[in-house]
Design brief:
Largest sheet: 2 strands, antiparallel
Shape: globular
Strand content: under 5%
Oligomer: single chain
Order of helices and strands: HHHHEHEHHHHHHHHHHHHHHH
Number of strands: 2
Number of helices: 20
Strand order of the largest sheet: 1-2
Structural class: mainly alpha
Distance between the termini: 52 Å
Helix content: 55-70%
Radius of gyration: 23 Å
Low-confidence stretches: 419-423
Mean pLDDT: 90
């Protein structure tokens, strides 16, 4: 049995990578007039809305990234006579120069399927894994219908996660989970093509963990499960707020394990292995992409990778201090009166719950919530250039830290032994 689990885990990872490669290679075989028409309508609509509209005025957390959504649509719906491998790995799109009386944004927010190749722009450092699903969905739905379906999918997964938390006896953590996810602005997550992939993967991971944890542990092992999460996030996401897919499931895993007889050391080892698994899945999938770029596209396919890594690992941006950039991301939530009211209300609720069921002895396993709390903080500090340039969506990484912080008193109350009423 000890040898079977690693083999199953390796096969699961190999199958996942093979599935990703198959989707990338077959995506451009999907081509219908409806797909092209719906892509053109979508780009026109986003161009009319502007590059970064806010659903709620003044709330950066509600800002949509229409600029990247246009990029996603034009990349996914790219039509050209390039070789299939080049289309699969280059991330090509067509950008038109501004015409007379046209702004740069109006020219950019234009989809065309019949433009000479000099206007084709590669964006090869990402997988663009959304291409297969998006081309298929655009064959069937207009963009606005697709937005509503994505919003519904997110809502359904949220409800499923909450129901599974109740089923697993984690109802005390529901306020912490719900408020932390609310800070991420769920309407924006559902409506923006840039935000939807990592959000749906994170919620799906939470649901699968809550529903199938014993089966996952027996079959492939939890570190492999987290490696699969990191792998798929890297495949579908364009570096938005990927750590959400680690911190939210990890918090639920720690809460589930504290209901068992696992020791502090055993749980710490398991949690650390899951963190390492997620990081390896995420990083190795990206390195595989760069390797394929070199094989398919040559030196040009990876020429800018080193520069981008250096840029994103630098402080950069408007501030010289990584700590200041971290605080700027946190202030997306804490500077808004409505969010502060919600924060105080949740903290008061959790404090009341803790006082009502305060434990007779402290269970140190709850301190392992520091892992999912520190992970997004360290990520933001390391990639502070990216967090400075895109604060309005990178702040969501830190919502996992909010969840861990809120979950701590709730988990301590959950671990408290049942009290007998006083006579």
């Amino acid at each position: 049995m000890l040898k079977i689990k690693p083999i199953r885990g390796a096969l699961a990872l190999l199958l996942a990578v093979s599935l990703c490669l198959a989707m990338s290679l077959t995506a451009f075989l999907i081509d219908t007039p409806a797909m092209r028409e719906h892509a053109e309508q979508a780009v026109d609509l986003l161009g009319y809305e502007s590059a970064s509209p806010e659903i709620v005025g003044g709330f950066a957390s509600s800002r949509l990234d229409n600029y990247t959504a246009v990029l996603i649509l034009k990349t996914a719906a790219y039509i050209g006579d390039d070789p299939l491998l080049r289309m699969a790995f280059s991330g090509l799109r067509t950008d038109l120069p501004p015409q007379e009386d046209q702004t740069d944004w109006e020219a950019y927010a234009t989809y065309s399927d019949a433009v000479p190749s000099p206007n084709n722009v590669p964006y090869s450092r990402y997988w663009h894994g959304y291409t297969f699903a998006l081309r298929l969905l655009l064959c069937l739905f207009t963009f606005t219908n697709l937005q509503m379906l994505l919003l519904f999918a997110q809502t359904a997964l949220l409800l499923l996660t909450v129901l599974l938390m109740v089923r697993r006896g984690l109802q005390q953590l529901i306020p912490a989970f719900a408020v932390s996810w609310f800070f991420m602005s769920p309407p924006a997550l559902g409506l923006c093509l840039q935000y939807a992939p990592v959000s749906l993967i994170a919620l799906l991971a939470c649901s699968l963990l809550l529903a199938l944890k014993p089966a996952l542990s027996r079959s492939v092992g939890l570190p492999v499960f987290f490696a699969l999460i990191g792998l798929f996030v890297n495949y579908f996401d364009l570096l938005t707020f990927p750590v959400v897919s680690l911190s939210f499931p990890l918090i639920l895993l720690i809460a589930l394990e504290t209901k068992t007889t696992i020791s502090f050391g055993g749980l710490m080892r398991e949690a650390l292995l899951c963190c390492v698994g997620w990081a390896l899945g995420y990083a190795c999938m990206w390195m595989l992409k760069w390797g394929l770029n070199f094989l398919v596209l040559g030196q040009d396919g990876i020429a800018a990778v080193g520069d981008q890594i250096s840029l994103r690992l630098s402080a950069g941006g408007e501030s010289r201090s990584r700590l200041d950039i971290l605080l700027r991301n946190i202030r997306i939530v804490t500077d808004k009166t409505a969010y502060r009211v919600i924060l105080l209300a949740v903290l008061a609720l959790l404090l009341a719950l803790f006082i009502r069921r305060r434990p007779r002895r402290f269970d140190g396993r709850a301190l392992l919530l520091l892992l999912p709390l520190l992970a997004p903080v360290l990520w933001t500090l390391a990639l502070s250039n990216h967090a400075s340039d895109h604060t309005y969506f990178t702040y969501r990484n830190l919502c996992g830290a909010f969840f861990a912080l809120f979950a701590l008193p709730a988990l301590l109350a959950l671990l408290a032994p049942n009290r007998t009423p006083s006579p």
